[in-house]
Amino acid sequence: MSRVSDILPKLAVDGRSLLDPTSGGVYEYATELTAALKRRRNWDCRIWANRWHKIAANDGLGPDATLTRWPNKLLHGSILLTGHPYLDELAGGEKGEIFWMPNLNFAAFSPQARLALTIHDLSFERYPEFFTWKRRAWHPLIGARALAKRADVVLAVSEHTKRDLVELYKLSPEKIHVTHHGVSERYRSPIAPERLAETRRRLDLPERFILHVGTFEPRKNHLALLDAFALIKKNPTQKNLGLVLAGPPGWKNGAVERALRTHPNRGDIRRLGFVSAEDKAALYRLAAVFAFPSFYEGFGLPPLEAMASGAPVVASFVSSLGEVVGDAGILVDPYRPAELADALKSVLESPTLAAELSKRGQTKAQAFTWEACAAATERAFESIG
Question: Which of 71, 91, 105, 349 could bridge across to 48 with cysteines, CB 3.0–4.6 Å?
């Protein structure tokens, strides 16, 4: 008797994106979408990953993952210089199997391999000045454009990313499938008051605060947020207001570090670094308003998480953020800190507006689920034929 898995279409998942919880939205996307695909049981999903040192038992790959133990520099160098090894063969690929990469990375494939590739954004093409020279070199080294052209289907996480792929990489629109992110149920589910109180104490949070979540990198526009906070704090009614910055360290942060050290209200700024998903869910609920003034986003998962959690959102109107936030938040020009400050003040000073934005955000976030993302992703896989 045949097992169910023997008659399902085969999918190999590049699990390298599942190994680093600090990588932000890419990790969240790869983890949540892989889990949703497995729950749906329409594909026989298996995971391949490579890591030289020992992989922790709780790394999320699962007990049935195929693991290879190449030193990463050797693997990447070999792919770059020789075009080998083929990842589909390293993963023990079967005939007809689709290999899905949830993010750009070093890769080479046999001629018969069928490749699905997710591209989150082309920020490195649009704004190279936001990256260090090493990061600017990384995408040409992995051959981002060539990988996109090699792929049988490209998954774009927003209509904005799809437009960038058509414009900058000259990909056929028919090859690109838009698969919006979902939002984890942890951000929709209630959190006990005692858990919120414990988080506030442990993280030493202000009683009332503006929240930002994101890696410390120039694209996130921390400088505008710091300027806006200084403007808001000039109002005596906001003397107890704090600013909480959550997110791992990034790159090219010299200007931000100087601004933090010399900020006139530096005593009211709390910098948390990387926070767990559980703490992040609590932060969204404790925040008076969530600020996300990025210059560019391929999707923008933090504002969606904030919306699902009930936090009123103020975000920039650029790139994909209008697509994700829309009229459920206030959208501003990221190049105008005074406009950002005015929008944040309007929320902070009007409980009615804050409640209305909270309601709109929760309603809009209901449309973004990982089940819907998985269904759209499966349709993209099926289009390969």
Answer: 91
C-alpha–C-alpha distance, residues 31 and 60, integer Å: 8
Q: Which long-range contacts (CB under 8 A, 24 or more apart) does 195-203 make?
A: 195/282, 196/282, 196/285, 196/286, 199/279, 199/282, 199/283, 199/286, 200/286, 203/270, 203/272, 203/275, 203/279, 203/283
Residues 82 and 166 in one domain: yes
Do 166 and 214 lie in one domain? The reply is: no
DSSP 249: B
The answer to whether residues 20 and 100 belong to one domain is yes
Same domain, 261 and 173: no
Return the CATH number at 10: 3.40.50.2000
Q: Are residues 116 and 251 in the same domain?
A: no
Strands of the sheet containing 10-14, edge to edge, are: 66-68, 44-50, 10-14, 98-101, 114-119, 153-156, 176-178
> Do 143 and 207 fall within a single domain?
no
Q: Are residues 340 and 210 in the same domain?
A: yes
- One domain for residues 24 and 88: yes
Range of the domain at 199: 185-365
The tally of domains found in the chain comes to 2
pLDDT in tens, the chain (385 residues): 344 456 889 999 999 999 888 777 899 999 999 999 999 999 999 999 998 776 555 466 777 788 898 999 999 999 999 999 999 999 987 788 999 999 999 999 999 999 999 999 999 999 999 999 988 899 999 999 999 999 999 999 999 999 999 999 999 999 999 999 999 999 999 999 999 999 999 999 999 999 999 999 999 999 999 999 999 999 999 999 999 999 999 899 899 999 999 999 999 999 999 999 999 999 999 999 999 999 999 999 999 999 999 999 999 999 999 999 999 999 999 999 999 999 999 999 999 999 999 999 999 999 999 999 999 999 999 999 7
Residues whose CB is less than 8 angstroms from the CB of residue 246 and which lie 6 or more positions away in sequence, other chains included: 211, 212, 213, 214, 272, 273, 274, 275, 280, 283
